[in-house]
Give the backbone structure.
Amino acid sequence: MLKIIAATAKELLLLMRDRTGLLVLFLMPAILVVVITLVQENVMELTGQKKTQVLLLDLDQGELGRSLQKQIETTNLEFVVWDEVQKDGGAIQTAVANGDYQVGIVIPQGASLRFQEETARLFQPGNGKRDSREIPDALSATSLQFFVDPGVMAGLRSSVTAQLQMALTTIALEAKLAMFGRVLQEITGPGVSQQDPLFNSSKLPSLFRQPLLALTENQDKSRETETSLYNPVQQNVPAWALFGMFFTAIPIAGSILQERGSGIWVRLSALPVSPLVLFAGKIAAYIGVCLCQFLLIALIGAFLFPYIGLPAFTISMNLTATLITALFSSLAACGFGIFLGMACNSYEQASTLGATSVVAAAAIGGVMVPVYAMPPVMQRLSIISPLNWGLTAFHDLLLRGYSLSAILDDLGRLFLFFIVTALLSWKLAGVRQ
């Protein structure tokens, strides 16, 4: 035990001297988690997963504008009232075209009155008889001006257009139903009870709005925690923390190669100390580095993200299981670094192979792009990535609300990866002596 402590102290002393390397290990994942999360949060807005602001200029100031705003409250759109002094539709079109806003809509003056007149025309009698009504041959729809920034994604354009069109369709349907109720009262005469909703013009639209079919999302009651809707913070904080952990493989390999190149490794091997003891010292030192990396990224997500407009990172009730997952991920990263140091012959080989393999493992493991968004071939390949095992375990804990027992298979893979790489390194160490 004393030998392991001495070896750990040696590694920590070397780490403290390599301030540039430590800065890279901590600064790189911190910058990546902030930048990538901000980008993904913006992508969620552009794809309609978050509310999209729509610039509104209501020149009419009538019932149509109020009804439209009421309908929009139930969608993923949010109106921003155009507060320019000059009530000019051309100015709002210019603002949208310049990219200041993505979407704009103008309700022209007199739109509410024209809409009411056209709705009434729809139910005008065809030949003067109360019981003989015909649909007019031609009706002119009340048109609202709609502007979209040419630079927005096609998905956002389609989503906003569909939601606005649905809102207008709902307003038109309610107006037709209200008019239909009044016409129906005229046809049936005074003998029908005015309290009957089937013949009451004021109650008819609300009657048709009553839902008869609905979808109810059920959550798994066996989970320990209540899960929330997906947000990129819960995805990216553990993902880029894992990425930084596995990048410690490069300085681990570099320290081993430096010792081998300077002859220190030969002198240490001549002592009555097993290579496993030397490996244990490096593992203990760099596990501390990996856990500090995870803590730094978690603190950035919890305290910095809310100040830059992102949701805060939360661990909820699975703190112990999360720390255990971080520990096993650190073991896997350290095992990989020791294997690189014993398998490669130069620092250039280790840095190139280490960086390439970690980036590739992150790419197919779901760190950069979620696994479900990959092609089927890539989804099948993701199972071979240690970063995928750690990330899946984190997601099961933080997003799905699973307990520690549910991630034992992923933790087992990480630990097995560490054992295999440590044993291979031990065999290579015997060959190198």
Summary: The chain has a mean pLDDT of 76. The first strand starts at residue 52 and ends at 58. Residues 15 and 277 are 18 Å apart (CA to CA).
